[in-house]
Amino acid sequence: MKKELSMIQINDTHGYIAPHLDHFYNQEGITLEKVGGFARMQTIFDDLREERSTFILDNGDTFHGTYEAVQSKGLNLIPLVNTLGIQAMTFHWDTAYGPAHLKETIGKKLKYPILAINAYAEDTDELYFEPYTILKQDGISIGVIGIAATVIDKTMPAHFSEGVYFTLGNEELPQYITELQDQDVDLIVVLSHLGFPQDVKMMKEIEGVDICLSGHTHNRLAEPVQIGDTTIIQSGSQGSFIGRLDLTIENKKIHALDHSLIRLTEDIPEDSQMKEQVEQTMASSKEKLEEIVGYTDGILHRGWNTESTMDNFLLEAIQQETKSDLAFSNGWRYGAPIDAGPITLRQLHQIIPVNPPVSTVKMTGREIYEMLEENLERTYSADPYQQMGGYVKRSLGLKVFFKAENPKNHRIQKLLIGDERIDKNKTYAVSYVTHQGVPEKYGKDHKNLEVHAIEALQNFLKTQDVYHPQLFGTFELI
Fold first, then answer.
1. Of 47, 274, 310, 402, which residue is 20 to 30 A from 20 by alpha carbon distance?
2. Which run of H or of E encompasses 214?
3. Measured distance CA(450)–CA(309) in Å, rounded
4. Is the peptide bond before 390 cis (omega within 30 degrees of 0)?
């Protein structure tokens, strides 16, 4: 008997519960449009649930990324996601407040399970979360397997993985596919936060998955990707898009599939009850965060892989505080862009929601060179399983000429500090934010200053009548 259903993917919402600006690409480069919002999501979800059997799944990066999310350690968002009707999730930045908080505090308040076949308790080697769930609706049975971000204990701050270690999940996955096949489910879905390149490789290696919902790398896949019998989709980030699959299945096989990448534009009506919930969630900090703290005459964004105006703004502020030779931050993908005009305190928190202290360290030229080569490998590795970005590390005060296609440790062709070739034996004064900017293993005399990132940005704006965003050509692909 044929069965029809719809599957909705949301991924990498990063705490963006209200409409916001996002970047889009055209012939001139970057353009901005107001999109997103849980109230528009709710309208689409409710309309679809009235039409047909509907399953809603979340790839994670949900409870972190905006002021409301971070200040409440994700708790403010729980009533909202429960109202949306999500049925399962996996995670990455959601462990920013510790894995125990995600499991014991957030997890116990959610109306749906958090899934991961690759997260293990250090003291017992047992799974820290449930590996899968079976969702049943209108005679349809779907097995959903979760794979969390494997980078959590490899590139993130240590508290993200306190008491927990992560594998890739490729060795465990076949076992759970077999378990679900034995339970006679109609479809097997992998809910992954590994990243699109990693998911493509894994689906080439492992059979038995019908749908792979991919997250982490913020790909806006207008068309599904077919790997053998497995269909892969990924649906942007920050709640600007949702992915929709309409499926016809018979005898546990997909006979028809239609995919839509839906941009949540302003012409989609907002559900009134969800809109009110969102406004209540944001009310207590609204006046504070609407304070205008400066002005820009250009767009601040994270739309490019090797360098971005938003991160140059952050690095210039850090360097002003420290007078360092060089400044580094992580190549974060999340963070809604800022249009030309006034800059609000809310927007500063969107740039760097964790608001870490500004830090300093002394690094030799050799350490800088090795750190950048490591970062380029984690960004462009020929083996997707070794890709652990983010974008290229954001840098100020240097210029790198590199070949992305070269093998590990051989990408940098020339590295300049100021106008001079780097001296590998010289010690340089470096400033940074978070150990994603400069890992602890590099340099000596790591120090956290009293000033934090948001204050540094505010101090910098006080010196600028209007900030002029620019790209410095820090990383040149040759």
1. 47
2. strand 211-214
3. 26
4. yes
Question: Which pLDDT score is estimated for 345?
Answer: 98
Phi, psi angle pair for 292, to nearest 5°: -80, 125
Inter-CA distances, 369 with 63, 322, 365, 416, Å: 35, 21, 6, 10
CB atoms within 10 A of CB 314: 27
Q: Cβ-count burial of 239 within 10 angstroms (0-12 exposed, 13-18 middle, 19+ buried)?
A: buried
Nearest Cα neighbor of 359 from 235, 444, 237, 418 is 444
Q: Write out pLDDT tens, residues 263-301.
A: 999 999 999 999 999 999 999 999 999 999 999 999 999
Residue given tokens 């055209």 in the structure block: 26
472, exposed or middle or buried, with CB in 10 Å at 0-12, 13-18, 19+? middle
CA gap 438, 254 in Å, rounded: 47
Tokens 């499991």 correspond to what residue?
103
Angstrom distance (rounded) from CA 301 to CA 176:
40
pLDDT at 359: 98
Give the contacts of 241 (CB within 8 A, at least 6 positions apart).
35, 220, 235, 261, 262, 263, 264
CA 289 centroid distance within chain: 23
What is the token pair recorded at 457?
């940005």
